[in-house]
Amino acid sequence: MDVVRKYDLIGVVTLTKLFAEQNKMTHGEACDYITTKIVAEEEFPIYDRSCATLPIQILPSENARNVVFEVFNENWWKFKDRENRVISGWSTRTLDVAVLKVDAEKYFGITIDDEALQNYEREQLANASIADTAAIFNKQTKAQEEKLLSTNERNTLLTIIAALCDYSAIKHQERGAASQIATMTQEIGAAVTDDTIRKALAKIPGALETRMK
User: Could you give the angle at the alpha carbon of 46 between the alpha carbons of 123 and 111, nearest 5°?
Assistant: First the structure.
């Protein structure tokens, strides 16, 4: 039984880059040519090499062709962060979609240096990992910024409550203030419990201190 190893494969993204380089094409032109060629060959095997075990051939062939389409639809040559993106509707990444080296040489006439290829694809994965890490960091930073914005908004609302209490001659820091405000919320048909109000009022001094800095 023939066994296909990861060593026997070349990623379609890498194939595109090598084909473009060896034929003086842009990556977009090479993508168009390679996609057309693969789709025309109904029995052109496509593999998913994302698993830790042996690569899995994507079947049926119609699914395989659709995956190749999706790889190139990512326009990864225009957007660097899409070079190792999870393909829409599939659980694999663009860099893990691959074809046999022998097929790449047979159908596209490229010359493959195994050692150079391994180094090249290893570098691609490393760059993709860096990009992934940067994306995660950016998401965390954005989340922190959103949290900070939420804190500012809360302090603003507490400051408004303090101003309204002062205007209504309610001393928010004194006992009984929560009960007075609770009664007012009942009167407008949106009742809030004494306990909930008391907790909010307890935060007013801190909010005012922040706003007055």
Answer: 55
Q: Is 94 left (phi over 0), alpha (psi -120 to 50) or beta?
A: alpha
Between the CA of residue 47 and those of 14, 18, 113, 145, what are the distances in Å?
14, 19, 20, 41
Considering the domain architecture, whether residues 83 and 18 belong to the same structural domain is answered as yes
List, for residues 67-84, the tens digit of each pLDDT value. Answer: 888 888 878 888 776 777
pLDDT band per the 50, 70, 90 thresholds, residue 146:
low
Q: How many domains does the chain have?
A: 2
pTM: 0.57
Q: Give the domain range for residue 85.
A: 6-112
161-172 pLDDT per residue, tens? 888 888 888 888
Could you tell me if residue 68 is inside a domain?
A: yes
103 within some domain: yes
Residue 90 tokens read as: 């599939």
Burial letters 162-177, b for 16+ CB under 10 A, else e: beebeeeebebeeeeb
The pLDDT tens digits for 110-132 are 888 877 777 777 666 655 555 55
